[in-house]
Automatic annotation (TrEMBL):
<dbReference type="InterPro" id="IPR043129">
    <property type="entry name" value="ATPase_NBD"/>
</dbReference>
<dbReference type="InterPro" id="IPR000600">
    <property type="entry name" value="ROK"/>
</dbReference>
<dbReference type="Pfam" id="PF00480">
    <property type="entry name" value="ROK"/>
</dbReference>
<protein>
    <submittedName>
        <fullName>ROK family protein</fullName>
    </submittedName>
</protein>
C-alpha cells in the first residue's frame, strides 16, 4: 500500500496529512503559515521528515494558492503568500526532499479531491465553486482537470455580477456577505454573530434578510453564468458557508427567475470533504504522477 503526504497551503494555516493510495487519511496536522520564504522552507521540510520517520512515503502532493503551471512548477502568483510569487515550486520543494513532489492550484485540488472521494464521485463533468474570503473554482471535464491556456481557468471571482459590474470576489464572497451583514446590523466586527446565527436571525430581522437576499442574488448570477459557460452535470459549492442549507433555497429562488434556467438547470450540491478536499486532491495528482513516471499530472 503506497502512502503519500498531502499539503494544503493556505494564507493562515498549512494543513497536512499522510494518505494512502485509496484516499484514507492515517495522520493529520496543521501549523500557522510562515511569514517568509526561509521559515516556509524550514517548517515544510520538518513536517516531511517527521512523517517519513513514521511512514514509508512514496510521494508528496501540494495544494497551493495562486496561478501555477503544473508542468513546469512555476507559480506566477502565489495568492496571499507574496514572498513565493514567481518561485518555481518544483525547484523549491526539490531542494527540501528527495521524494517526488506534485504542486497544483488549491481550488483545482479541492475539485479533484471531491471527484476522488467526495460529492463529485458520481459525475464526469462538474464545476466546484469555493466561497470564502474570495471566490475560486475548479473545472472537471470528462474526468480531467481543465486548467485553461494560461492555467487560470476557474477564476470565477472576477465574473462581473454586481449592479456596477463588481466581481464575485467583491459582492458574492463570504467576506462580502459578512460586510453587508455588519452594515445591516450596525455592529462592529468583533460583535458579529457567526454564519449559522446570521441565517437564523434573518427570519426576524428585515434589514439582515435584505442583505443576505442581495448577496444570494449576486451569487446566483455567478453560478448561472458558470453553468451557462460549461454545461456541467452538477455544481459543487465549497467553503464553510456551503453547510448552510438556506443558501441553496435562496439561490434556487433567484435562479428560477433567469429565462433559460429550466433548460440549463443542474444539481447544486455542497462539497462533502470540507478542508480535507485540497490535500486529498493533491495526493490524487501525486499518485497519478508517480504512476506515469513524471511530475505533471496530465
Amino acid at each position: 500500500m503506497q502512502l503519500f503526504i498531502g499539503f494544503d497551503v493556505g494564507g493562515t494555516h498549512i494543513k497536512h496529512g499522510v494518505i494512502d493510495e485509496n484516499g484514507n487519511e492515517l495522520a493529520s496536522g496543521e501549523y500557522d503559515t510562515p511569514e517568509d520564504e526561509q521559515s516556509f522552507r524550514q517548517q515544510w521540510q520538518a513536517v516531511v521528515e517527521e512523517h517519513q520517520q513514521k511512514h514509508d512515503i512514496a510521494a508528496i502532493g501540494v495544494s497551493f494558492p495562486g496561478h501555477i503551471n503544473p508542468h513546469t512548477g512555476q507559480a506566477a502568483k502565489a495568492g496571499s503568500l507574496a514572498y513565493l510569487d514567481n518561485v518555481n515550486l518544483h525547484d523549491l520543494f526539490g531542494d527540501l526532499t528527495d521524494l517526488p513532489v506534485t504542486a497544483e492550484n488549491d481550488a483545482n485540488c479541492a475539485a479533484l479531491g471531491e471527484r476522488w472521494r467526495g460529492a463529485g464521485q458520481d459525475y464526469d463533468s462538474f464545476v466546484c465553486i469555493t466561497i470564502g474570503t474570495a471566490i475560486g473554482g475548479g473545472i472537471v471535464v470528462e474526468g480531467d482537470l481543465y486548467r485553461g491556456s494560461h492555467y487560470r481557468a476557474g477564476e470565477f471571482g472576477v465574473i462581473p455580477v454586481g449592479p456596477e459590474g463588481e466581481g464575485m470576489h467583491e459582492v458574492a464572497s463570504t467576506s462580502a456577505l459578512m460586510k453587508a451583514c455588519r452594515r445591516a446590523l450596525a455592529l462592529p466586527e468583533e460583535e458579529m454573530p457567526d454564519g449559522e446565527a446570521l441565517f437564523e436571525r434573518m427570519e426576524s430581522d428585515v434589514h439582515l434578510r435584505e442583505a443576505i437576499e442581495k448577496w444570494a442574488h449576486m451569487l446566483s448570477r455567478g453560478v448561472y453564468s458558470v453553468i451557462s459557460m460549461f454545461d456541467p452535470q452538477a455544481v459543487l459549492i465549497g467553503g464553510g458557508i456551503s453547510e448552510q442549507k438556506k443558501i441553496y433555497t435562496l439561490m434556487d429562488k433567484y435562479l428560477q427567475r433567469f429565462e433559460e434556467w429550466e433548460a440549463l438547470k443542474v444539481p447544486i450540491l455542497p462539497c462533502k470533504l470540507g478542508n480535507q478536499a485540497g490535500r486529498l486532491g493533491a495526493v490524487w495528482l501525486a499518485k497519478q504522477a508517480l504512476k506515469h513516471g513524471h511530475r505533471a499530472p496530465c
